[in-house]
Design brief:
Length: about 140
C-alpha cells in the first residue's frame, strides 16, 4: 500500500465517485470527483496530505456553491426554441377555403391545415391572412 503514490489514490477516489454519479444521476458526485482530481494534481507535485485534503474540500465546495445555482436556473427555464405545433402558434396563414366557427382550410407553413375561427361569429374568406393562436389536434385556431 505504501508503494502507491497518493495521487493514484485520489484518482481511484475520483473514479469511485463517478460510479454513484452514473447510478444516481446526482451531479454533486461529479463535483466531488473533480475535487479528487485536483487533489491528485497537488499530490503529484508533492504536497502533503493536509494540503491535498484542503484542495479537495475547497474545490468540491466551490463547485457546488457555483455550479448548482446555475444548473438550477437552467433547469427551471423553458427552452427558447419552440418545436412542433408550438412553433406554429403565432404564425400567419392564408385562408384557402372560408374559415368560420365550424371549420375551413388554411395554408400554414407550406402545408394545408384544417382551421376554425376562435370567434364563432367571425368568418374569414379565401385569400385573407389570419393569425394562428392555438393548435387543437390537427386543427388550427385562427383570428
Amino acid at each position: 500500500m505504501n508503494d502507491i503514490d497518493a495521487w493514484v489514490w485520489w484518482l481511484v477516489a475520483a473514479a469511485g465517485l463517478g460510479i454513484p454519479l452514473v447510478v444516481t444521476a446526482m451531479p454533486e458526485f461529479a463535483m466531488f470527483a473533480v475535487g479528487a482530481v485536483a487533489a491528485a494534481g497537488v499530490a503529484g507535485f508533492g504536497a502533503g496530505i493536509v494540503v491535498q485534503v484542503l484542495v479537495f474540500v475547497v474545490v468540491s465546495v466551490a463547485l457546488i456553491a457555483v455550479v448548482r445555482p446555475i444548473a438550477a436556473r437552467h433547469r427551471t427555464q423553458r427552452p427558447q426554441l419552440a418545436t412542433g405545433v408550438d412553433a406554429l402558434k403565432g404564425k400567419q396563414a392564408v385562408v384557402l377555403e372560408r374559415v368560420d366557427g365550424s371549420g375551413g382550410r388554411i395554408k400554414l407553413a407550406g402545408e394545408v391545415w384544417s382551421a376554425r375561427s376562435l370567434d364563432t361569429d367571425r368568418a374569414y374568406e379565401a385569400g385573407q391572412e389570419v393569425d394562428v393562436v392555438d393548435i387543437e389536434g390537427a386543427t388550427a385556431i385562427v383570428i
